[in-house]
# Entry
Amino acid sequence: MLGGTLLVVLVVVLAVLVARSSIRLIQQGNVGVVKRLGQFRAVRGPGVVFLLPFVDQLNRVDTRETPRTGDRQEVITRDNVAVTVNATIFSQVVDPQAALFNVSDYRVAIDQQARTTLRNAFGNVTLDQALSEREQLNASMQQQMESVTDKWGIRINRIEIVDITPPAPVLQALALQKQADQEKRAAVLQSEGQQQAAINIAEGQRQATVKAAQAEREAAILRAEGAKQATILDAEARAIAIGAVYGAIRNQAPDQALIAILQLETLAKVANSNNAKLVVPVEAAGLLGAAQTLKEALAPPTSKQ
# Structure
């Protein structure tokens, strides 16, 4: 009875061991590399995998993108400045067979290759280039690593330089340089502002001068127009007055004797002016005698005592 119970227990234990060695579960994002008697057999995807008990061996490989943050390390730039650098590498297994059989431990290999690549990349640039050209450094490091990791079945998706820490004296020098650049930029902006203000003032004065000249021109034109209109109106008034006088004279039908008397009176008015010299036309000189004779003839006779 005891022997039978022991046999049953042994059978159950053996069944459990066989089940554990023959049935495996692979999670999503992983694959299983099957080896039979130490040799590569197949690559199994996620799900349930059946193996030959005690003959097949399963190695799980994570095929998801994995960020690997390296340790901080000191590197020397091309201008002999020692800086502390830290970078993160985003890698992914694309060939599980090569990752397991072409390198002993692909995780350690990626880490060591990253250290070597980081030192080489910073050794080819100056400190200023390292601080200002991180994108170019990232691309250069990724290209250098891919040339090595491709044969391991590893794809380097990208490399990000997390931190670059120069020595304290260099940081102080950079701070002074940054302050000088800011002061220079402020001085340039101030001078540009003053220049623009001077240009605006000059432009305003020019526009004011142009406006004043235009206003003076328009005023002169208006004054000329007014003088012209006044002259025209005065000439028209004189023409009307002359026409009225001439018409009145014609209506009265004056004879030569009346005309001569009018001319004589006009000459008398001219003679009474304050002019120092008097010019008498030749025709008027002949009228003097005739007018005098005419006056005597028309004068009423005086009574004799």
Remarks:
- The chain is about 60% helix and 20% strand.
